[in-house]
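Collaborator request, handled under Task 6.
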Amino acid sequence: MSGYTVLVTGGTGQVGLELLRQSWPADVTVLAPARDQLDLASGDSIAAWFASREVHCIINPAAYTAVDLAEDNVGAAFLANAQGPAWLADIARQRDIPLLHVSTDYVFDGSLDRPYHEEDPVSPLGAYGASKLAGELAVRAGAPRHVILRTAWVISAQRNNFLKTMLRLAAERPELSVVADQHGCPTSARDIAATLRTIALAHLADGSAPSGTYHFVNDGSTTWHGLAEAVMAASRAHGGAAVPVRPIASADFPTRARRPGNSRLGTAKIRSDFGIAPRPWQDIVEQIVSELSLPSPKSEKLT
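Structure tokens returned to the collaborator:
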């Protein structure tokens, strides 16, 4: 075989953008079609796109991620997060290719007092988590060669996320109030992409590479309040806005959808099977804030 083609869905999202920025081998072509070319909400669109292309691996980070809106848009959430992956799994099975599917900590209810392992019972609290769990089930049932990668608290220098929201609010308000009783693992979209790249290349090189469900988050854990304080400290160090962060309870910040109190995920399995060693979450906060603090390139003056 002269080369490989990898399909990346959701190429404009946090993880999708980072997948396109990864350093792929010269014999790997990465395709990230726009929605008007490949619509994961349409089985006909998926079939038509694949009909004229040879693809050797599918990476699916695309998802409906509006947790609160999902409570009132259950059909849309399940179409994107369950039916779309089911169609991709069917393609993967027909072509005997690996499907790497990104999932979430929200498949758990957060009741455990330790990091969740891959085999722990699932019990989503809301529509978003239920739709992502349905997607996991569809991928397991439909694609023999699959990797389901659960992750959590995704942050990056791109798109909308908690870290960027804290920086924006720090420039607008004298103080921030942030939930301090939800625990999780902040995770770099870039590190998720690098992990997916490692797994994809392992499967392209060896058809018997490990399959199954894996957890990937950056090392260590904190609360949303702790993450916000780390963001403020990094911003201050880079000369940016930084304000005090007041801890509050979840009950003081009601949301449409319930959130797990414990979103910590254990990573022993992915470390063992793929040799992946997650970086500390504090390092990724510093890296992202540093990137966002860099001055924008100035356009050249026309003469």
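The cover message to the collaborator said: "Residues 4-161+186-220+264-280 form a domain with the Rossmann fold fold (CATH 3.40.50.720). The longest strand covers residues 99-104. Please let us know whether this matches your experimental observations."
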